[in-house]
């Protein structure tokens, strides 16, 4: 009895789902109202942002003294706080081993300050049996 009731309910729902699109509003070709939108003019100036020694401008981020002051930068974590996709790689006990840009870190990230390349991470060296290993 229960299955028969479910079967009837399914048939009823199916018939309603197929019948309802019949009542959808049809727009005749002559009844369609078209609106003419105003013309928009866009004016812009081309700005040169690429330096002569720069390979590409993609992903380049420049921070000025004013920007650092506004963002209240005190350490390297503050430096990347408002930049999406850039994170400081944690090393433990508050130390960091460089930056991670969209998942890439270590020697795959180029960091320059005033045009000078910066070191990304330090290689730990340990003495084992009187010999140094890198």
TrEMBL record:
Short motif (TonB box): ranges: 39-45
Q: Hey, what's the signal peptide range on this chain?
A: 1-24
A Pfam family: Plug
Report the locations given in the UniProt record. Answer: Cell outer membrane
> PROSITE patterns annotated for this entry?
TONB_DEPENDENT_REC_1 (PS00430), TONB_DEPENDENT_REC_3 (PS52016)
Keywords annotated in UniProt: Cell outer membrane, Membrane, Receptor, Signal, TonB box, Transmembrane, Transmembrane beta strand, Transport
Cellular component, GO annotation: cell outer membrane
Q: Which domain of life is it from?
A: Bacteria
Domain TonB-dependent receptor plug, which positions? 62-123
PANTHER family the UniProt entry points to: TONB-DEPENDENT OUTER MEMBRANE RECEPTOR (PTHR30069), TRANSFERRIN-BINDING PROTEIN A (PTHR30069:SF54)
User: What is the protein's name according to its record?
Assistant: Transferrin-binding protein 1
What species does this protein belong to?
Answer: Neisseria meningitidis
Q: Lineage of the source organism?
A: Bacteria, Pseudomonadati, Pseudomonadota, Betaproteobacteria, Neisseriales
């Amino acid at each position: 009895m229960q299955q028969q009731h479910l079967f009837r309910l399914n048939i009823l729902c199916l018939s309603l789902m197929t019948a309802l699109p019949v009542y959808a509003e049809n727009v005749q070709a002559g009844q369609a109202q078209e609106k003419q939108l105003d013309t928009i003019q866009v004016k812009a100036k081309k700005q040169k942002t690429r330096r002569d020694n720069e390979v590409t401008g993609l992903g380049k981020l420049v921070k000025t003294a004013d920007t650092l002051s506004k963002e209240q930068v005190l350490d390297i974590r503050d430096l990347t706080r408002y930049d999406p996709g850039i994170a400081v790689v944690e090393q433990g006990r508050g130390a960091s081993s460089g930056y991670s840009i969209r998942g890439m870190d270590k020697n795959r990230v180029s960091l320059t300050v005033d045009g000078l390349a910066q070191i990304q991470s330090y290689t730990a060296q340990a003495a084992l049996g009187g010999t140094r290993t890198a």
